[in-house]
Amino acid sequence: MSQRVRAFTDGGCRGNPGPGGWGALLEYGKHRRELSGSAASTTNNQMELMAAIQALESLSRSCEVDLYTDSTYVQKGMKEWLKNWRKRGWKTAAGKPVKNAELWQRLDAAAQRHRVTWHWVKGHAGHAGNEAADRLANEAMDAQAAGAGG
Q1: Structural domain boundaries of the chain?
Q2: pTM, 2 dp
Q3: Mind listing the pLDDT tens digit for each residue in 89-138?
Q4: Which residues are catalytic?
Q5: Contacts by 2-6 with C-beta closer than 8 Å and gap 24+?
């Protein structure tokens, strides 16, 4: 795992649920790659998860990844909650099914291919990587609203 990648991810939607988009900026050395996508009816949390999933799944080989998200849901989920969800068969401490379990499982599988360090950054606070991911997510939402999303 000699490659070190910085991934900046963001997701959002207009209405919750509503049309949504996600964006990811990946940086490796001097290389930059932008990814984005959208969904016609989704939630903010689903788009935040999808941004992280797509960032990690897009890497063709195992890497060391610094993943930056402005979503405490994603960051805490991966660092604090995931281990116990797995132990309890994807149930919360209250015994209820984990919301978005399919996406969490997909993110978990994608993260296991890499050595990921999860970083939380404050959204809309001038962090260049987060602002770029936010722009990509909003462009994807705009395309979805114009009928060109996907």
Answers
A1: 4-145
A2: 0.94
A3: 999 999 999 999 999 999 999 999 999 999 999 887 888 999 999 999 99
A4: 10-11, 48, 70, 124, 134
A5: 2/64, 3/28, 3/61, 3/63, 3/64, 4/28, 4/63, 4/64, 4/65, 4/66, 5/59, 5/63, 5/64, 5/65, 5/66, 6/65, 6/66, 6/68, 6/129
Cβ atoms 29, 82 nearer than 8 A: no
Q: CA-based angle 76:27:57, to the nearest 5?
A: 60
Which superfamily, per CATH, for 4-145?
Ribonuclease H-like superfamily/Ribonuclease H (3.30.420.10)
